[in-house]
Amino acid sequence: MICEAIPHSINPTRAERLQLRLAQAKRAFTTRHVDLATAERLVRSGRVPVAGDVVLARVTAIGQHARIENIHGRRGQLYVGDEIIVAYGNRYAPDQFEAFVPTDLEECDLVAGGGVASRMTRKHAGMKNPTKIEVIGLLAGESGQTINLKDFAVRADAQPLRPTRVIAVVGSSMNAGKTTTAGGLVHGLTRAGFRVGAAKITGTGSGGDLWTMRDAGAIEAIDFTDAGHASTFCVDSEGLADICTGLLDKLARSGADIAVVEIADGLLQPETAALVEMAQAQGWFDGFVFAAADAMGSAFGANWLAQRGIVPLALSGLVSASPLAAGEAARTCALPVATLAELRDPVAVTKIVFRQDMLVEEAA
Amino acid sequence: MVTTVPRVEFIASTAPEMPDCFVSIVGPDAPTMVAIHGISRNAAEIATRFSQHPAFAGVNVIAPLFDAARFGKYQQLRTLKEGQTASDVALFCLLDHLAAQHGINTGKVAVFGFSGGAQMAHRLAILRPSRIRAVCAAAAGWYLLPVLDLPYPYGLGQGCPAAWDRDATLRIPMTVIVGSRDTRVDESVRQDRLIVAHQGTNRLRRARIWTQVMRKHAAQCEDSESISLITLENGSHDFGQCARETELLNFVSAALHF
């Protein structure tokens, strides 16, 4: 890590005082691409936050998230009184919180450890209350314009490229094994001699999944935060399309032969469903692997995909860890079930990934 | 979004005597190349690299996958267990199947092999020349010598699965390629007494000896084709490295007359 000395000056300007303050704050993963040097002031008066706005906030009560992931991926302890730099965003996490960007700058919640400021509306029964944060101000440039993650987003070229093969991992729910499945694919394909790029197209900003892909061998691992979104809940179709094409373009230009992309949550989540349908219509993906928590989820998911003209290359996820459950899934869906060991095997994984398109002739 | 290269597809075997394969089929009138993997069985990678390369844009690429269970000694055209199918028979079965399915011409094919695949490729030229149009053998660990006083698979003596039609073999253009950095003698380079005694210890030395022997035969054959040896600058014993960082694929294109 490079530590830059912050120059002290007599009678510092407002901008200089702000830079000193920002340098001492805990900066969250979601804001890692933001050039903080562009921040000249903090604004509050008359401002209504929007998703992606970068905010300096103070921790007022520790709740569910007692740590915050910094720009390098380390989860640092939070203390009451800490100043943190996070981004506004909505959150949809069935195992954690539902939350929306508030319409004011009053106290709100830290709803994700990657650094998402929002206001919680509902929570899983197993969750504590969210960590509370007090908004000090929105970061703004010299002319007062709010700094937003989109200001630092990667965008697709006018002639966007995509890797020669794109495999999408979708699932039955949160924690169905999608990231493990995607990591297995990345590792197996890397061992098979391919340069594999990984992308998480939807979800809530956090470095964990990207580190997983990097550790598995991905030459590049990027997500929607690279495309200027702290989370993708409530992002419209056009926004989702921009994220998908932008990330695939970036992976192709990085030299990836194959892209493994993960789409968060289950197929019933609105943005996930919209993205899968749009991708199928546009031909963005060459194949799907469906990660399910159990056999019943496998059956529903396979049917849901079939209704949209998609036959997955394989089932995987948690269901594949149980031979009995995997057998039920395979029999019911008439699809192969790939275990994690098979995904990580360089020969077995290529048989899965390069299977011929098995698109349903006519959507039911 | 733009993806311009032909698609590589996996085709699962439909019979025990036929291997799985990865193919990139561009059309029935296109020439066909068989690309054979080494012991890492990276058939998908090999098919992908060739199909992506501009010199092979108009070529049907077939990369068979000789799995260890069914085709354990595929490099030597032999079987591991009784009742199994030899890899040459299996390959021709696959080619006939693909010809019937896709209408492509697989009567005489160009063959490329890397490492263990190169062993199989040059053995096909010696023992099954009627189906081979050209051969390019890259990074073979050792070679089948055309001599009768060595048993098979070292030579054409005891146990050899076919009689040698010398002139038919020598009418096949043959190119041997070895990376300039592929001289390390590790556990993957067999050091059998018969191999070391007749071919030396490392891949580069063995390639030189084999091409010299084959050229001597060619000198006695009126209409023989060329037998070339290329030392691949900066090439290691890694197909991916050679494909990405050296002229390997351009040399293969020239060797197989695409």
- Number of DSSP-assigned strands of chain A: 17
Order of helix and strand elements from N to C terminus of chain A: HEEEEEEEEEEEEHEHEHEHEHEHHH
Give the amount of beta strand of chain A, in percent: 15-25%
User: Largest interface, by Cβ-Cβ below 8 angstroms: which chains and how many residues each?
Assistant: A-B, 25 and 24 residues
Question: How many strands, what sense, and barrel or not for the largest sheet of chain B?
Answer: 8 strands, mixed
Radius of gyration of chain B: 17 Å
- Unreliable runs of chain A: 358-364
Average of per-residue pLDDT values of chain A: 94
Shape of chain B: globular
Number of domains of chain A: 2
Strand order of the largest sheet of chain A: 14-13-15-12-16-17
The dominant shape of chain A is: globular
Query: What name does CATH use for the topology of the largest domain in chain A?
Result: Rossmann fold
Number of separate structural domains of chain B: 1
CATH architecture of the largest domain in chain A, by name, is 3-Layer(aba) Sandwich
On the 0 to 100 scale, the average pLDDT of chain B is 95
Would you kindly provide a written description of the structure presented here, covering whatever features stand out?
The complex is a heterodimer of chains A (364) and B (258). Chain A is α/β, with parallel strands linked by helices and 364 residues long. Chain A folds into two domains: 14-148, no CATH class; 165-353, Rossmann fold. Chain A is 27% helix and 24% strand. In chain A, a hairpin with a 5-residue loop joins strand 4 and strand 5 (75-77). Mean pLDDT of chain A is 94; it is low at 358-364. With 258 residues, chain B is an alpha/beta fold. Chain B has one domain: 3-Layer(aba) Sandwich (Rossmann fold). In chain B, 32% of the residues lie in helices and 17% in strands. Chain B is built from eight helices and eight strands. Chain B has helices at residues 43-52, 87-102, 116-127, 166-170, 193-199, 203-219, 239-245, 248-255; strands spanning 9-11, 20-24, 32-36, 60-65, 109-114, 132-138, 174-179, 227-232. An eight-stranded mixed β-sheet of chain B has the order 1-2-4-3-5-6-7-8, with helices on both faces. In chain B, helix 3 (116-127) links the parallel strand 5 (109-114) and strand 6 (132-138). Chain B is globular, with a radius of gyration of 17 Å. The model of chain B has no long low-confidence stretch (mean pLDDT 95). The A-B interface holds A 159-165, 192-194, 245, 248-249, 257, 282, 284, 286, 346-347, 350-351, 353-356 and B 1-3, 5, 7-12, 20, 22, 40-45, 48, 52, 65, 67, 239-240.
